[in-house]
Amino acid sequence: MHLVAVPPRIRLLCLTLVVLAGCARNPVTGGLQLALITEGQEIQMGQQAAQEVSSTIGLVDDPALQDYVSDLGLRLAASSERPELPWAFAVVDDATPNAFALPGGPIFITRGLMDLMRSEAQLATVLGHEIGHVTARHHVTSLSRTQLAQIGLGVGGILFPDLQQLGNVASAGLQLLFLSHGRDAERQADDLGFRYALDQSFDVREMGLVFESLERFGEPSNQSPVPSWLLTHPAPDERIQSVGQRLEALANPLGQLRIGEQAYLDRIDGLTYGPNPRNGFFREGLFLHPDLRFQIAFPAGWQTQNLSQTVTALSPQQNAVIQLTLSADSDPEAAARSALNQPGIQVGQTSREPVNGLPAVLATFRAQTQQGTVDGVMAFIAYDGRVYQMMGYGPAGSFASEARSVQESLVTFRELTDPDALDTQPNRIAIVRTTETMTLAEFDDRFPSVIPIEELAVINQVEGPSILLPAGSLVKRVVES
Ligand SMILES: [Zn+2]
């Protein structure tokens, strides 16, 4: 959760798409394809979803790094079949290694993948692959008519996010990220990315190293709202093999190709590694937020998620959810009015008892929504110049069984005073140039990291602790800030 307020009403992304069936020429293959949406609509859909990604996941606050990725991406896209699209490249603040493209130009890469890679050529092949999805219009073909109709659904009145959906991700726009393009499309994106990176003289053999380290890194169990590359993409082995086949098929042997190891590693020196606890973290049943200086206890056993604008908890039976956000209003009374004075909402019991010494308004409610009748309780708590809005709700039929634990959870909101939690800092990448030949294990003795040596081997793309690093190597370590 970052320092962002959301509008008092909770809305799903609403795009007004006119679903048209027609034929359009594919920019990459030149062939005719059945196109359900026009290029204008494709661009509009991507732009809106991109805004949502920026506000939901959040961008890494490092202008130099953002410019670096953007400059490289724009260069690659300029030599693609669709140079005129509104291309945009950004690094999102998510610790899971990943990259994804949205229709019509927006491309995102996660901080976790930046941490994992070791060269500009690797970055170029990843961005190239994502550019390939856009130039070949894979989103347009992957979206089914039903999905298009859902995304285009005009939404009015009160709308609560679907409980099931909150378990994964909180909006319809982000569903675009869950599109699976299929094997042929992935192969085509690899082919295109390979070509774009080669056009800019990057050593595309580095592509295999990205697949390999993604596979070795595996699936960290963290809070990422984005589906993984590993799940949505073909097996790394197969892709590494086909890099070799593509190289053999080249008419001219590779000449002077750029790897750009030092340029890349200089850029990620100091980058946050792993989850960033300043944006909030879970510890022993508590959610603690050092920057906003609050804590709250969610019911035991609930599935929790810390996103950029919200913290959510979902009951094990998925029949109730608690959602914590910052209100745009300046006092609890006004916040309660904005949230509760909406057509379709019936207010039940209201209380103005302070919560742990903080001014608060609590109210039970019943609401008629597109997903049926919903029962719930809202709390508005003023603290440190902000109003926190917490809402626990579920389907009217089954919420009663969870109501008590929801109420009890909401009133655990209080000031965070634990100095250890307040001082928590993220870990960071630090780059060291070795002055003599040593193994990775020896390196780790001399320049200790806060991560296990196996993980250190993965992010340095070496096989294991006994591998010799020649003098003058640039080696990543992970340190506390
Ligand atoms: Zn892909």
Keywords:
3 domains, 35% helix, eight-stranded mixed beta sheet, 22 strands, globular, binds zinc ion, Protein Transport Mog1p, Chain A, four-stranded antiparallel beta sheet, alpha+beta, 481 residues
Write the layout of secondary structure elements.
Blueprint: E1 5-6, E2 22-25, E3 32-35, H1 39-56, H2 63-78, E4 88-92, E5 99-101, E6 106-110, H3 111-116, H4 120-135, H5 138-142, H6 145-151, H7 163-168, H8 183-199, H9 207-217, H10 229-232, H11 236-249, H12 261-268, E7 272-273, E8 281-283, E9 286-289, E10 294-297, E11 303-306, E12 311-314, E13 321-327, H13 332-340, E14 345-351, E15 360-369, E16 372-383, E17 386-395, H14 400-410, E18 414-415, H15 419-423, E19 427-433, E20 438-439, H16 440-446, H17 453-459, E21 468-469, E22 474-480
Parallel strand pairs: 1-13, 4-6
Antiparallel strand pairs: 2-3, 5-6, 7-19, 8-9, 9-10, 10-18, 11-12, 12-13, 13-17, 14-15, 15-16, 16-17, 19-22, 20-21
Helix pairs in contact: 2-4, 4-8, 9-11
The structure holds zinc ion (ZN).
Summary?
With 481 residues, this protein is of the alpha+beta class.
Can you give a write-up of this model?
- This protein is α+β, with helices and mostly antiparallel strands and 481 residues long.
- It has three domains: 37-143 and 179-268, no CATH class; 278-417, Protein Transport Mog1p, Chain A (3-Layer(aba) Sandwich), CATH 3.40.1000; 426-480.
- 35% of the residues lie in helices and 23% in strands.
- The chain contains 17 helices and 22 strands.
- The strands form six sheets. Strands 1, 11, 12, 13, 14, 15, 16 and 17 form an eight-stranded mixed sheet that branches.
- The longest helix has 18 residues, at 39-56.
- The protein is globular and about 75 Å long.
- Bound molecules: zinc ion (ZN).
- Zinc ion binds at residues 129, 133, 186, 189, 233.
